[in-house]
Structure formats: structure tokens, C-alpha cells
């Protein structure tokens, strides 16, 4: 007996744990708008729950899931089952929509009716043909698509003739029908239209209708990576409530997620007609960026900071765009304002460091990057710029370490800097390997490869590379200078002096190049003197 009791306790404990797992999975599916999976898990959890009160709570969750699926019959059945488990069950109004509460009240009234009804059974009434009740009954009894499809003409006839006050109920049934036929987009559009109609009917005079539940459902669809379905739902909302600005906001987001940038732009422009909010302007600027319309994006961001001068996100967006457009002075000013309001803006902090480095202030860049890495430690992008800053400051070992982190994360824009750091630290072979897969300006890559070859004691290989480079880029001072250097390393004094002289004669030649040309010419001249001194004199012939 004791062993049997122990087994019973273990089984009970396992059942409770399994039920809790099912509820967790159901809650997760519900949050992701996967209502079919949520309904399946809630139903399983209810079946495995031994406590009637807890089972009633689970069945309420099951009912609201069916309600969101527009399956009202199943929602009513779940509420009825919950009330049988807990006849004293009361729903907290703040947690549910008015439609769901009304449905629950109807079910509760139906269950209470037999207590006061006469003892003689009420006659069973058959709904009149073509009525909404009959259509619902036939829909619940339909077992295949052909049976469901056959209901559409009756629904559409009822839709055309029903009073306006009852139209939403007819459209609910039509939405259920289309959903069962797999026409999800059409069903969602109808569902949105019904939500807009009800919100319009309930809105106070002079206020714009906002169907919150439909907007939340649209966001759940976006979270589930279903932007096209969200668009369908919101089209329905706006068909019934065309002045609903929040619906245009979410619609723009759905269009962006679906890659429909022109539609997103139009939705945001419409929303801005009703409310010039900085958030909408930021979204508009983001759309313009994706459309590669930088001027339009800049105008949107500027308008945002005009409306809200303390908006750090707007200042950051304006500064990042200015940096992208090459206006470093404006970028510096805007990013400084953004960071003064919010020092945790990671992207703004890194780009501000880039600007400081470009303007020759590595110490300032280092401070910005250290603060950026406090927000996102070991971020490869910030680490790459930290490595570039170390390289400028002469910290070659630190530069190589940080730049390697960035390149390993496929940020190939740091490959050249890594190769230079490896070259400077004497790791020439590593530098050449890095350059083999480097991306960037072809001339810069080839010049750095030539420098590595010279450092590796391979001046002939460097000469071959540089000869081709000079032929294709005869105005490149650095190419000619390095070619002269490679010739000098091979003791080709005259050829070296000639190339260095050409480099020195070019406009804006650095002083080091001119000095190199003078030294090469001096070497050539000295070698000429040495050669003539070593040549034996020609003696006169004897007669």
C-alpha cells in the first residue's frame, strides 16, 4: 500500500509539473500571436489540472485564445466549462475587452437560466433560414471547405441587408468563414474593419477612435514576422476609422518590415498630418534613409529636433546622418548634444570617436571608445575603431589585438589597419595573409603589400608590383617613391635616382620624398665617382 501511495504522489507531482509546462508554452505562444498552438497547450493543461479553481482559470485563458481566433462557439464552450469548474468565477474587467466580457456574461446568463425556468422543457427553436444564427450553426457543423464555401453567398446577402447596428456581427462570422478557407489576409482585413467600426461606435464625441486590441494584435503579428498579415489587419481598421493616427504609425512599421518603403513613407506622411510627433519624424527619416534619400532624411531629423530640442535620439540621428554625408562639423555638434543628454548612445559614441580620429585627436577618440565599450563590452565595431586609434597613437600591439577582433567578426573595413599593425610589429607574413583577403581601395592595398615585401627583404618582388602600379597610376607620388626605394635596395642607383626625382618633381610632394631624391642622387653621384676611381687609366700608345 505504501508503495502504491508513493507512486500516486509521484504521478500527481509529475502531472502538476507537466501542466505548468503546458501553461508556460501556451502563454509563450499567446504572446507570439500563435493562437492555435496556445489553444492546444491550454486545453492540455486544463485536462491535466486536478484543482477545479485552477482549471477554471486555465479555461478562461483558453476562451480568450479562441476569442482572438474569432472562434466564438469554442470560446463560449470554454467559458461554460470554466463556470462549471468554478460557479463563483468573476472576470476582472481591466484585463479583458468589453466584447469578451459581454460574451462571458451571456454564457453565464444561459447557464443560470435553467435555475429559474419552468419545469417543462422549452421547445427547441430552429433558427430561420438565412439568419445569422443559422449561418453560425451551419458554420460550426461544416466539416470541409466545400461546406464552408457554400455559406459565403448567404453571408454576403445578409451583409447587404442587415441593419448597421448588426453589421459587425455578420462581418465577424464572415471573417471566421474566410479564416477557415485559408484566406487569412481577407479574414484579417475584415477583423480590422470590425475593430474599427466598434471603436468608432464607442468613441466619445470629438475624439478619434483607437481600436487598441486590433493595434496590439498587429504588433503581435509583427513580432511573429508576419508583416503582410499586419498590413491586412490595419487596412481593415483604417477602412472603418480613417482618422486613426496610431493605426497609420503601426501600418508604416508593417510596411517597413515588409520592404514596402514607398508605402511606409505615405503612411507616415498621412500620420504626420494629424500629429507632428518626433517619433513619427524619426521613423520618416529612417524610411528616407532606406530609400537613399539623404536630404529628405536630414529634413525629417531636423524637424524632429526643432519640435523637441531635448530629444537625444533625434540629435543622434541628425549627427549620424551628417557624418555619413561628410559634414563632420555638423555631425560633431549634433552628436555632442545627443551624448550630453544620453551618454549611453552607443552608435553616436563610436561615430563621434571616428570624427575625433579623422580630425587628428586620438586621445579624444580613445575616451569616446572606452565609454562605448562600457555600454557594449567587446563589440567588434567599437573594438575595430579602438584598434585604429591605438595604431595612430603608436600602440601597435594593442592595435593588432583589437583590430583582429573586428576582422574576425567579418568587419573587413579594418583589414588594412590590421595588416599595417602586423607589419609594424614585424609579423610580415601575417600582414601579407591579411591583405590577401582585404577589401578596400586597390591602390592602398597594393602599396601596403609592396611595403610588406620590402620589409620582408624581397625588393625585386616589390619592384614588379610597383612597376605595374606606376604604369596604371603615373601621378601617384607614393608609388614612384616606393619604386625608387625598391630599386635603391637592389643597388640600381641610377634608376632609383631617376624615379625618386620624378616623385620629387610632382605637385605637393612631401619633404621626405624630396629629401629621399636628394640622397639618391648623392648616392648615384658618389657611386659614379667610385666607379671612375676604380677604372684603370688608359695609357697612351708608344710610338
- The percentage of residues in β strands lies in under 5%
Determine the number of helices (DSSP H or I, runs of at least 4 residues): 29
From the 3D coordinates, which CATH architecture of the domain at 343-440 would you assign?
Answer: Alpha Horseshoe
Shape: elongated
Q: Give the CATH H-level superfamily of the domain at 343-440.
A: Tetratricopeptide repeat domain
H-E order: HHHHHHHHHHHHHHHHHHHHHHHHHHHHH
CATH class of the domain at 343-440: Mainly Alpha
Give me the CATH fold name of the domain at 343-440: Serine Threonine Protein Phosphatase 5, Tetratricopeptide repeat
Low-confidence regions = 1-18
| Distance between the first and last residues' Cα | 144 Å
Largest sheet: none
Radius of gyration over all CA atoms, rounded: 38 Å
Describe this structure in words.
By secondary structure, the protein is an all-alpha fold. Among the domains are: 95 residues, Serine Threonine Protein Phosphatase 5, Tetratricopeptide repeat; 98 residues, Tetratricopeptide repeat domain (Serine Threonine Protein Phosphatase 5, Tetratricopeptide repeat); 89 residues, Tetratricopeptide repeat domain (Serine Threonine Protein Phosphatase 5, Tetratricopeptide repeat), CATH 1.25.40.10. Helix content is 75%, strand content 0%.
